Amino acid sequence: MTIAIPRYLAAFNPKDLPHRFTDVLIIGGGLAGLRAANSVDPSLSVMVITKDQIRQSNSQYAQGGIAGVLDPDDDFKNHVSDTLTAGGNLCDPNIVDMVVREAPQRIRELIQWGTRFDEHSGDLLLGREGGHSHHRVVHAMGDATGKEVMRAMIDWTRRLRHVEIQESTFTIDLLTFDGACRGALISQNGQMSLVWAKQTIICTGGAGQLYRESTNPAVATADGHAIAFRAGAELRDMEFMQFHPTVLYIAGSSRSLITEAMRGEGAYLVDSTDKRFMLDYDERAELAPRDVVSQAIVSQMEATRHPCVYLDMTHLDPNFVRTRFPGIAKACQKFGIDITTDRIPVRPGAHYMIGGVTVNEDGQTTLPGLWAAGEVTSSGLHGANRLASNSLLESLVYGSHAGQKASLAAAEQKDHFLAFPIENGNVDPPEETLDLTDVRNSLKSLMWRGVGVRRSESGLHNSLSNIDRLQQYVLPYQFQSKQGWELQNMLIVGRLMVSAALEREESRGVHLRVDFPETDDANWRRHIITGSLSS
Predict the structure, then answer these.
(1) Residue 49 φ/ψ, nearest 5 degrees
(2) Residue 290 among the catalytic residues
(3) In what helix (H) or strand (E) does residue 25 lie, and over which residues does it extend?
(4) Fewest Cβ atoms nearer than 10 Å: which of 66, 308, 391, 420?
(5) pLDDT tens for residues 298-335?
(6) What integer pLDDT is reported at residue 120 of this predicted model?
């Protein structure tokens, strides 16, 4: 059963709505979006739209840090090799090399713009995380790197006179005409309006809210993936959702990320019997890549019939632990857990969307006039499994590239203060009312059960049929609220993820098919392309 996906989620007529004009429109105010804004020529106007407060993004909550070759004992080849190894033989080597070589410059830019990374005796303090062969991860405030980086970036960007930031503004859809992106339909304070842009960049982040267990903030509802798909841009590798191995597990509480840097500093993973089990699964033990650790944890939970495993730092110096991880110590203390003397209950949770909008090295999508950067994209950097602390790096590099190239393209276009003849008529919705919260919770639960760390043909087919049933009721509606539009986006993207996971009949990186447990390079060392809505 295939449900018709609407091109636009809301009814609108240009004659009835306010209009705004800008040279470059950036949708998303995380690190990628702000870095893109900083790359646009000051002679051009830039509008940054973010659906919540600007500090509410995945970038804000990043704990670990930013990877870059800054130690004399390290080199670019090492970082490239570690990225390729983690990526499950699906990375683009040219993209990996480009991003890795730009890392030191991008980190230095952040320092110039006011970011205060942790130091020791005047030198940057470099950490090591799973999958890295060397200490190369810069961090701030111990375990609050994203918070510090975003503080500096927001302060810096707000000073730019040509950049306007619109908070609490939801992007309903991209506007397309004559095969190109022309801007976006937005909603602010209950009022829809049309923003016409010469060039548009989407930096909307991830899709973690599709899962019951997730490290992502409430804003991560796959909006960018959905609006790009409906507008006609190509998506790829939608089966690759990375699960973070260690998410604080307290029944009934919200989930908190427990940074991978803890294992980099020597924390052990133990099960309910106090057994340190990672060496049973991989010789790299706790420093194995995230896909290996997540899958091992799930196996150990099943073997012990226990709902979680535990991070143990009790063998490390208490003063060092408290100083290095102050945020996590505070979060755990709320539940009576002293991380220097108690084990921390953890289990995997949806963390990072590897698949997304297909982009080239400049951040250009397959839709003219549309660019993208950050977690919403599939750039070729991560392959089938992202190496720790490469995500903020990707946002910096691709934000810079997309901003520069969109700026050049916009500068070549003449001002055009006219609306294109685009409209979407009303659709009569079904008579029954929907409990949006209930539908959303149902979707999150079935995604966790069927499209989680472990997958099978039967579980994926069950997820697909259930999503189809939910789509049948939800997609015909034309909502007037963010909650409704988010749910429609989640349903659309969830189905794309399930379909791609069904198609890939092998296990690679974060995609574990229990019915196809081996990696099959001969048939599946390739990307799965998700055709656009218009294709």
Answers:
(1) -115, 130
(2) yes
(3) strand 19-27
(4) 420
(5) 999 999 999 999 999 999 999 999 998 988 998 899 99
(6) 85
Round to whole Å and give the CA distance between 87 and 64.
19
Element (H, E) at 201: strand 191-202
| pTM score | 0.92
With bands split at pLDDT 50, 70 and 90, how would you rate the model's confidence at 257?
confident
Distance CA 217, CA 499 (A): 25
How many angstroms separate the CA atoms of 398 and 372, rounded?
8
Contacts (Cβ under 8 Å, ≥6 apart) of 407? 24, 39, 40, 41, 44, 199
Q: CB–CB of 22/40 below 8 Å?
A: no
Report the mean per-residue pLDDT for the chain: 93
100/520 Cα distance (integer angstroms) = 28
Q: Name the active-site residue from 182, 255, 290, 495.
A: 290
Please report, as a single letter, which amino acid is at residue 254: S
| 251 or 516, greater pLDDT | 516
- In terms of Cβ atoms closer than 10 Å to its own Cβ (0-12, 13-18, 19+), residue 368 is middle
Q: Is the model's pLDDT at 164 over the cut of 90? A: yes
Q: How far apart are CA 169 and CA 191, in angstroms?
A: 10
**Kind plus residue range of the DSSP H or E element containing 487:** helix 482-503
pLDDT of 143 strictly over 70:
no
**d(Cα 279, Cα 156) in Å, to the nearest integer?**
45
**pLDDT exceeds 70 at position 532:** no
State the Cα torsion 481-226-57-196 to the nearest 10°.
Answer: -80
Residue 158, number of CB atoms within 10 A of its CB: 11
What CA–CA distance (Å, rounded) separates 348 from 454? 11
Residues in the chain: 535
Side-by-side strand order, sheet with 356-358: 377-378, 356-358, 235-236, 529-530
- Burial of 18 from C-beta contacts in 10 A (0-12 / 13-18 / 19+): exposed
Is 430 within 8 Å of 473 (Cβ atoms)? yes
Residue 180 has pLDDT above 80, yes or no: yes
